[in-house]
Prior knowledge:
alpha+beta, 6-stranded mixed sheet, 8 helices, 22% helix
Amino acid sequence: MENKKLIAALLCGSLLPGAELPVRTVVLYKHGVGYFERGGTLGPGESARLDFNAAEMNDVLKSLTITDNGGKVTGVRYDSNIPLEQKLSEFPFAIQPGEPLSKVLDQLKGAQLELDFGSQKIKGAIVSARTIAGDKDRAERDQLTLLMETGDLRNVDLSAASAMRFPDAKLQLQFKDYLGALTSARSKEKRTVYIDSTDTKSRQVKANYIMPMPAWKSSYRLLFDATGQQPVLEGWAIVDNTTGDDWTSVHISLISGKPISFISELYDPKYIRRESAELPEDQAVAPVLYKAAMAAPPPPPPAPMAPRAMAMRPGAGFAGAMSTDMAVQVQAEAATLSSVAPTGTASEIADLFEYSVKDAVTVKKNESAMLPFLQQKISARKLIVYSDQSRPNPLNAAELRNTAGRTLDGGPITVYDSGAYVGEALVETIKSDDKRLISYGVDLGTRISTAMSPLTSDVREIHAHNGMLVTKYSRVQKKIYSIRNVDAKAKTLIIEHPITSGFALIGTVKPLETTSKAYRFEIAMPANGSLEFPVSEENIYDQQTSVSSMTPDTLLVWMKNKAVSEAARRQLQQIGDLKTQLAANDAEKRRIDGDVQNVTRDEERNRQNIASLSAVSGQQQIVQDYARKLTEQETQIAKLRDRQAALETQHAALQERVNGLIERLEF
């Protein structure tokens, strides 16, 4: 116990806690961070202390700002993330758990030490220290041998000393830092930031920063009275204090919106790998082993290779705490740059919206709170909405128009009607004067069924250009909503009709409004009444056909279409007549080609017969007959060839006329 007291005496006055800066303002956002403002009084030369979790340090180091009313901030220090073993290895001594003070002092041979024995003070250099075993008459004790300034060696009993100190301020500071490292290591998650000052007077200091925080949540209560007009909307914010500090009488603001935020790894020490470089003359010359002579000289030895770059090992003396020798003057008016100063009102901040709680709030650490931020009448009307066509019943709903004069953050809404709970809804963020539909229950008094009429298709227009026939088609689909209201009260029904890609509404039915996915139709439903509500949609699309690829029969079909004008019909008739002539020409060509092939085969057989009979005696007459037939066939083939050439010429002329008509086709 005495040893522990003496170690504490060595560190007396060096581990005074920093001044606390209590939380004054909290601003919570929707994207996982919170803005904090701390403030308090710093005495002359005093340091402020801020405690955080290790996971919060990246955001704190990225955002910390300090405001001082005229004082001088000389530096900001914080607990580094260097392992404890690495920190302690830098000190010239080690304090092991449970070891006596004598063993610690024995590591500091030659160091000057002052000891108080009541009113007597002695000073000397440490020669050695040891533990003297106890006996039946005396307990175990620590003994120290000092070299006095007179040159004498003197043994002193450490347990009799009431205080001790090192005259060497550097050594005393090392003890302070050693114990500080042990203190910070007791909590693996806690980290401390110190704000240092050398001012000689007290002053007010503010520290602002952001840190990770749970997103605040909003919930609403929509209260209808018996009339159903101008219901009251109550808004509550749910906040969670997950910090290690109590929020006592703090000003809280809530920000709706999602500004960009990210984590930068600023807290962990970053080591950069450096390349090794040496001057060529600093490299040693390796010995050369010469081989025996051969028929040809050996190649020259390779040039020495550059040494491989080695990764730099972090130095044991790396300083983890941030400090500066230059005093930083922070102007008090810099605090006015903050755009989140709570005012107790609601206000727009660019694309964000701030709800400021007017009265100071107290939330203990690891507790949550519900804070009211809205209670006023709002424009709303009761409806029933039919959106899910797989169900027969629409939903009880309300159309809310944000007449609160402020943006309403998204969240759940609990609906009460004449004091009774009637359901719950979920709503997105609503800007001022914007409106939303919410549904909170099933209307069992209304039934809706749907039926689709057969899809019809018709030709709307026919045009020709650049040899292409362009046909504009119309497809019409029709859905009929059959609605039955069995309640003895009139209702206003909103039907959300899905938008079909490529189709547009036709007819006299017009939607109340259109969303990205549906048309909204408003229908007045009579009490105990039924009606049908048809919705027709049309799809217009084009189809292109090359006129040159059309047959005369296909052209005839198009000419009979009622969408074709008389002038267009005459143009198509001319093309059709020429295509008919081309078809006849092609048929005649195919017939002539067949005749040529048949005659040619007969000629080949006659030649074979002549060749075989010429070698047989007495067959001259037959050979002459075959020769005569061969001559006739040659004459026939010549006439067929002439006809083929004439047909080719006729075909080319017809085709040229057709192509010219197609090129000039325009209607």
